[in-house]
Amino acid sequence: MAVIPIFxxxxxxxxxxxxxNQKAISGEARATFNGAKRQIEKWLSFIxxxxxxxxxxxxxxxxxxxxxxQEKLLSLTDDLLKTGTVGSVRxxxxxxxxxxxxxxxxxxxxxxxxxxxxxxxxNDVLKMAERGHTAEQTGNAVKLLKKKGFETGLQxxxxxxxxxxxxxxxxxxxxxxxxxDVARIYPVLVLKGTPLAGKLKKGDYQPLNIDDAVRQSSxxxxxxxxxGVKVIRVGLQPDSELCAExxxxxxxxxxxxxxxxxxxxxxxxxxxxxxxxxxDALVCFPADMESKVRGLKNSNVAFWRDTFRNKKVILKKxxxxxxxxxxxxxxxxxxxxxxxxxxAPVAGKNSRVLILGSIPGRTSLAMQQxxxxxxxxxxxxxxxxxxxxxxxNYEGKITFLEERNIALWDVISQCDRExxxxxxxxxxxxxxxxxxxxxxxxxxxxxxxxxxxxxxFKKYFEGNIPAGIKVYYMHSTSPANAGMDLEAxxxxxxxxxxxxKC
Length: 502
Fold this sequence. Notes:
Elements: E1 3-7, H1 22-26, H2 33-44, E2 54-58, H3 67-82, E3 88-93, H4 100-108, E4 111-119, H5 123-128, H6 135-147, E5 151-158, H7 165-178, E6 182-187, E7 190-191, H8 195-202, H9 210-226, E8 230-234, E9 248-250, H10 257-276, E10 281-286, H11 290-294, H12 299-307, E11 313-318, E12 324-327, E13 337-341, E14 353-357, H13 362-367, H14 378-386, H15 394-403, E15 406-410, E16 412-417, E17 426-430, H16 433-438, E18 445-449, H17 451-461, E19 470-474, H18 486-493, H19 495-498
Parallel strand pairs: 1-2, 2-3, 3-4, 4-5, 5-6, 6-8, 10-11, 14-15, 14-18, 18-19
Antiparallel strand pairs: 7-9, 10-12, 13-16, 16-17
């Protein structure tokens, strides 16, 4: 199924809700027939005709437009329906702009689904958001839409002014009771040019942080899906207009908010099952669920490690049909923590030195930071090399590297591994080191940090590195290399600095 999106920003709506800036969200300044036609024509070259496709009017309040403009806009989708380009049409509007006359017009043009910008079903919250409608009007609109044979959708928000988590729970209960066909959930963002931006500046509004936004969105998602409602989106679409520099002033924006919610719900589902297991726990799951089970930056892994300090929680992906949580076998040496993945490279066009590890260890993966283990001497060696204190915070450490034209990456892209030891690496796949080197015109030397990094580099890339770039195989800064003290490491690694001089 493909969707042809047609944006009609703020059209048909006399209200200025505190959070709204449809121009920023849609990239369109106002609703016109020609503007809608241009949007459709742009998409036609990409879309293969199908009855499963849909034309969708987003933004604004469609049924608040002048009837003649509604007719003109719907004539465009009439043509799409007649040619079989799409099989259905959806519109978005306000709940107080639903009546029999308006629905007759929509029905005549084959509109199938009507989404209502509800935001909340708490009248006090609606008033503070200056929505201009009530929760009761939403209930009446849904009943009339169902009576006339339309599918219905509700658009709900978390983080509105004056909206507590308890208010969100009340909205979830009422929305589930209305039994719409679909729903969308949007954490509130503070956009440039909105009344909410002014409130934020005055200190009269505080947006949700990302954790609270995920928690409250997850509650809505869970209650709606439990009632048979299909949640079709969580979070605003991260397009170029919304994400333009300076557009989002504050708020819990994440390009994969839906993924965060799914991951949080899985954590809530798995955690009590781990608690019930006697001794260490083994969590087995389908391979395609790995990112959700682990959580963003391994947040679920870190949560379970902190929650269950007296037991191991081992993750194992495989050909499973569902998630299984059971006691870890006593002879667990064959159990692998699958799916270790390296990070994106830290590199720039001025990089002169590339330092390659094997693949991040367990601590680094949990924290999503290069060389995060407190006993790894990588950052201490750099501090000695430059006779400067390396910043404690990770952002400062990365800046430290970038200012000195040092690039970081790992030879191995992904592998299966129990624990953090390189000796346990299995099923490894390399990163595109050769491809990265081609993008670094000033690179003079590559340093492999440790035996495994060196062995993997030789295996995959020896003989495939441009002439003039020297390769050095160094002793590891890892705590596993306990036989070599910090002074000895410094004496070996200080050659790095010679390649950084102009």
